[in-house]
Amino acid sequence: MDRKNSLIFILALPFLIGCVGNGKNDKEDSSPNKNKWGTLITKIDTISYYFREHSGTGVSHILLVENDRDVVDSTQINWSLGYIEPKIELIGTDSILIKKGVDGTRVSLRSLPTNGGIDGYVYHDIDVNGSPLPTEIMECSTFYFPGYLENRLDSKLSATVYRHPAVSQQQLASAVYKKIRTFSYDREDISSHPSDIYTAVHDAACSFFRQQDEENNYISTNDFFFIPVWISEKAKAFTNLSYHCWRGEGMMIVVYLSYDTYLNGSDQPLGFSDIFQDNSESQIAKMLGIEENQIFVCNEGDIPMPVFYGLTRNGVAVCFNNDGMGPEYKLLEYKGIKEYLQPNIIELLK
Q1: What is the pLDDT of residue 209?
Q2: Structural domains of the chain, count
Q3: 136: which residues sit within 8 A by CB, 6+ positions away?
Q4: Cβ of 107: how many Cβ atoms within 10 Å?
Q5: What is the pLDDT of residue 247?
Q6: Which domain holds residue 205?
Q7: How much is the pTM?
């Protein structure tokens, strides 16, 4: 079954997320860490810190509650990647990692203001995009293109691209072009090497819409997001978090996620055999809790999708995507897989 025909089988994720979220909240309500303020993160002196997630809104909050009686302040968390479940991980006793995917933004709880009060509800903001790297040092470009066919004018493609100063625009442009083109039905000219990011997104968008069947009036919007999550300036290597959200007519939504590592000016991401030693498939599959034949391709859903591997600061991120349930991602921490890594990868991580 091709991708166009498989669209009718794609799950209505917002509805699903709402149903799953309600079930999850019902379960958490019985937990001693869950109450009317949310899920308890930790307590410092007289202040308790709670995480309150607002399912489907794209924002969440950290509520500061004094003596478990009065909310003294709140900090709003803005999510950049929709439909990727946020997680809060306590680091030590007074810091948290706000995760989107396998990594995210570290925040000191002691740095959160405590002088706002609850009137008006939101006083402070934290933007979380899944990267531990500071976005203020990066160049950010956002592009928006409508459909290029007469019966595709309501279709849209947008892309937000962050570029770290250590990465050349040409290398990133070529990588972005190829990543967007992988979701086009046409594979011709995928070896193109655009010299700048605007040209990369523009040309990919033209191809994306042009190659759709003109007899199919299906309308869709496509949002792409690229941000570096790991950089080795010495080795001229970097890893992008790549996000693609496809929205069809009605409530049909599919999200794809990958961590793609590029070396030495290449626009071809590393694969399993570039990162792991020969004959390590069975050991890695066991660590991931999958069958060995699932190491390279995710066969769930209507269209088999490649499994993506990428280097991050804490381990190798592994992403499984399918057209039915959205992405699943896991982190293989370096301390547990060092003996299976290629020698050049070990040197790269030093």
Answers
A1: 78
A2: 2
A3: none
A4: 19
A5: 86
A6: 135-348
A7: 0.85
Same domain, 54 and 181: no
Amino acid at 285: A
- CA 317 from centre of chain: 11
Calculate the CA 70 to chain-centre distance. 35
Task: Kindly give the pairing relationship between strand 124-128 and strand 103-108.
Answer: unpaired
pLDDT less than 70: residues of the chain = 1-33, 55-58, 115-123, 148-153, 184-191, 211-218, 301-302, 324-325
Residue 211 in domain: yes
Residue 237 is encoded by which pair of tokens?
Answer: 């290597």
Write down the pLDDT at residue 46.
92
The residues with which 263 forms a beta bridge, in sequence order, are: 237
| pLDDT reported for residue 176 | 95
Q: Whole-angstrom Cα distance, residue 288 to residue 158? A: 33
CA distance 119 to 141: 36
**Residue 302: predicted pLDDT:** 67
Residue 17: CA count within 13 A, CB half-sphere: 21
Phi, psi of 186 (to 5 degrees): -100, 135
Q: Pick from 253, 259, 254: which is nearest to 327 by CA?
A: 254
Half-sphere exposure of 179 (CA within 13 A, CB side): 32
